[in-house]
Amino acid sequence: MNSMIALTPILSVLVFLVVMRMPAMKAMPISLMATGILAYLYWKVPFV
Q1: Would you say residue 47 has pLDDT above 90?
Q2: CA nearest neighbour of 37 among 8, 3, 2
Q3: What distance in Å separates the CA atoms of residue 28 and residue 13, rounded to the nearest whole number?
Q4: How many helices (H) and strands (E) does the chain have?
Q5: Half-sphere exposure at residue 1, Cβ-oriented, CA atoms within 13 angstroms
Q6: Is residue 4 within 8 Å of 29, Cβ to Cβ?
Q7: pLDDT digit string, tens, across residues 2-15
Q8: What is the mean pLDDT of residues 24-44?
Q9: What are the b/e assignments for 3-41, b being 16+ CB within 10 Å?
Q10: Largest CA distance in the chain
Q11: Rounded Cα distance, 22 and 5, in Å
Q12: So what's the pLDDT on residue 36?
């Protein structure tokens, strides 16, 4: 389970850039926010 959660940032970039053909200027900030939310909720990383 942890390995699937750890792959989420890479998979989200893959989906946004390749599957949805979204420009990197839009895909990367969305992926960054998704990774930050995942880190905060799943891994309990403190909000800085």
Answers
A1: no
A2: 8
A3: 7
A4: 3, 0
A5: 2
A6: no
A7: 898 899 999 999 99
A8: 94
A9: eeeeeebeebbeebbeeeebeeeebeeebeeeeeebbee
A10: 33
A11: 23
A12: 93
* Interacting residues of 28 by C-beta distance below 8 A, sequence separation 6+: 13
Distances (CA, A) of 10 to 43, 45, 48: 17, 19, 23
A 10 A CB-CB count for 42 gives 13
Length of the chain (residues): 48
Average pLDDT over residues 20-45: 94
pLDDT band at 48 (very low <50, low <70, confident <90, very high): confident
Structure token pair of residue 34: 């998704």
Q: What is the mean pLDDT of the chain?
A: 93
